[in-house]
Design goal:
- This protein has 562 residues and is an alpha/beta fold.
- The chain is built from 13 helices and 25 strands.
- The longest helix has 16 residues.
- The chain binds one RNA strand of 75 nucleotides through helix 5, strand 6, helix 7, helix 12 and strand 19.
Length: 562
RNA sequence: UUGGACGUCGACAAGCGGUAAGUCACAUGGUUUUGAUCCAUGCAUUCGUAGGUUCGAAUCCUACCGUCCAAGCCA
């Protein structure tokens, strides 16, 4: 194609551009994110937030509302409201105006219901739930009218008021739209508008005992707030006809339009609020912010930044195709960010003692090290070196495979920032386990520079034993073993696919002393291992690090093949 | 046997009648004080299938196939 930057735009923005061209909505663009406060937000919600917030910010004068869709007091709670606010704010999706709540509009919903009753478009049904279900039919079988369908307006008005006043029990009656029980779209078969729930609401308390259904409330909320483009996920396509019907039969000033797009699915994890809740309640994971969870709070604790999540959301695109995004894509995005931003330090997760036999006892040298070799402005730090070091146990093999460049008897390797060293002797305990390596160093290779142009192929990190800081390191892996959790076998549940190795803890890790200055949540690169951040469980004298993402490891890949 | 949405590389995803963008993954080389990063190269003669219209089709028409959604007084 041509080299000029061809900016392609997704189908939603294409639609908005068209609406703008046609002067729809007085050229306003107003979106919203409408979470139900019944769980924590996850990366799938982040996509919806980024789409809605992003669109509002891209168009001149665009607005973005945060609205809690709290129409079902049975499931909802203020603790979720608080968690959701925190996550959205952290993501950097700043909402315009005050936070909105569907429960603020209960009075308006009620008046709208009265209006529908008065125009003969709604009626109070006294069918018990089971019978109502029966009469609804199925996608292939038309429904049958309720015997209460033809009550007079006066009767309906009176009964509805009695519903509101608590004269009926739960399930005894409902308010229904009078549309068409034989409609091909099941959602148009006299849908329920209001039901009785004698439950206190987290904001309105016991003021109401009738609560609006989603289909009735949502379009009204959008209209009340002047939302122009009401973006939702694909499964609501069948609801759009009802969304339009309700607004067509009332007279709100604004006329929002629903547009559906595909929600995000990520491989090797689940996005269902129900599963997430079960994982938390069954203590399979350690709370909503467990770093293995795809929740915003879990990802935050793991070290993901708002920028990386936003970048991911914009790069996966927007379409109407149900899709499954490869988790490797997420990992790529987060590595990309931290490769540029994160300072490098040295750490050893499984220590193996090394003694440099020709290095003077008691001597300490301080080497200057680049914080980020790819970025000069990242500055430098000082790393102490001494006669006794730890290297990682995995960097030494007594009988190495071909092309193993790391430490083995007689093979010179580079200790990053320090010296070239060669292992001469392997010390084992009574079980034959390697417990210490005796090495010699080349004083001429100071600062790990080759003194004579000779090459060393292996370069490994280390930590000076007298200076090292002990730490606990937590490695996280995929929570599930099945790539597409939407394809579980019949009769199996998510717990059948839990990855038993999703968390691996090294309690005996050592990190170079400069790590002391790092804040909780700050991401650094443990050279040759991965990106890590200090966990909030850390204290002044106990350090815990979470692995955000591992570095790519082509050596491991070669090993796997052979 | 219903209605709707959708099918472009292993995964995302452009393209909307003028002869298949890009990203991830993967592979192979090069650079390298991280087997990281970086750089280079390769990776759909073909767009679910079959017909048709056209000088020309992923794009238009027809038929078929497949996937997903819908029968909560959940959202």
């Amino acid at each position: 194609m041509d080299n000029n930057e061809v900016k392609t735009v997704d189908f939603i923005r294409t639609q908005i551009n068209e609406d703008l061209k046609n002067n729809k909505n007085d050229k306003r663009v107003h979106t919203r994110f409408p979470p139900e406060p019944n769980g924590f937000l996850h990366i799938g919600h982040a996509k919806a937030i980024c789409v809605n917030h992003g669109i509002a910010r891209e168009y001149e004068g665009g607005k973005f509302n945060l609205r809690f869709d709290d129409t079902n007091p049975v499931k909802e709670d203020t603790t979720y409201v608080e968690a959701i606010k925190k996550d959205i704010d952290w993501l950097g999706a700043h909402w315009d105006g005050d936070i909105k709540y569907a429960s603020d509009y209960y009075g308006i919903f009620y008046d709208a219901a009265i209006k529908l009753i008065k125009s003969g478009k709604a009626y109070v049904d006294s069918l018990p739930p089971e019978e109502a279900r029966e009469l609804r039919g199925s996608p292939t079988k038309p429904g049958i009218n309720s015997p209460y369908r033809d009550r007079t307006v006066e009767e309906n008005l009176e009964l509805f008021e009695q519903m509101k006043d608590g004269k009926f029990n739960e399930g005894e009656c409902t308010l229904r739209a009078k549309i068409d029980m034989t409609h091909v779209n099941v959602h148009m078969r006299d849908p329920f508008l209001y039901r009785i729930k004698k439950v206190s609401h987290h904001r309105t308390g016991d003021e109401w005992c009738i609560y609006p259904m989603y289909d009735f409330a949502h379009c009204l909320e959008d209209a009340i707030e002047g939302i122009t483009h009401s973006l939702c996920s694909l499964e609501f396509i069948n609801h759009r006809e009802l969304y339009d019907w309700i607004l067509d039969n009332l007279d709100f000033e604004y006329r929002p339009r629903q547009i559906e797009f595909a929600r995000l699915n990520l491989s090797y994890t689940v996005m269902s609020k129900r599963y997430l809740l079960e994982l938390v309640e069954s203590k399979t994971v350690n709370g909503w912010d467990d770093p293995r969870l795809p929740t915003i709070s879990g990802m935050r604790r793991r070290g993901y930044s708002p920028e990386s999540i936003r970048s991911f959301c914009s790069q996966i695109g927007l379409s109407k195709v149900n899709s499954l995004v490869d988790y490797a894509f997420l990992e790529y995005i987060v590595r990309e960010e931290f490769n540029a931003k994160a300072d490098r330090i040295m750490a050893v997760t499984q220590p193996l003692k090394v003694t440099i036999t020709n290095y003077p006892e008691g001597q300490v040298e301080e080497f200057e090290a680049d914080n980020n070799p790819n970025r000069e402005d990242a500055g430098k730090r000082v790393v102490p070196f001494s006669r006794e070091l730890y290297i990682d146990r995995t960097d030494f093999i007594e009988e190495p495979p071909k092309k193993f460049f790391r430490m083995t008897k007689g093979q010179e390797v580079r200790l990053i920032h320090a010296y070239f060293v060669t292992c001469n002797e392997v010390i084992k305990d009574e079980n034959g386990e390697v417990v210490e390596l005796l090495c010699t160093y080349d004083p001429a290779s100071r600062c790990a520079k080759s003194p004579d142009g000779r090459k060393v192929k292996g370069t490994i990190q280390w930590v000076s034993i007298p200076h090292a800081i002990k730490a606990e390191v937590r490695l996280y892996d995929k929570l599930f073993t099945l790539e597409n959790m939407g394809n579980m076998e019949e009769g199996k549940t998510y717990s059948d696919y839990l990855n038993p190795n999703s968390l691996e803890i090294f309690t005996n890790a050592y990190v170079e002393p400069s790590v002391k200055d790092r804040a909780i949540g700050e991401v650094v690169q443990f050279m040759r291992i991965g990106y890590f951040c200090k966990d909030l469980d850390s204290t002044e004298d106990s350090y815990i690090f979470n692995r955000t993402v591992a570095l790519k490891d082509s050596w491991a890949k070669i090993q796997e093949k052979s």
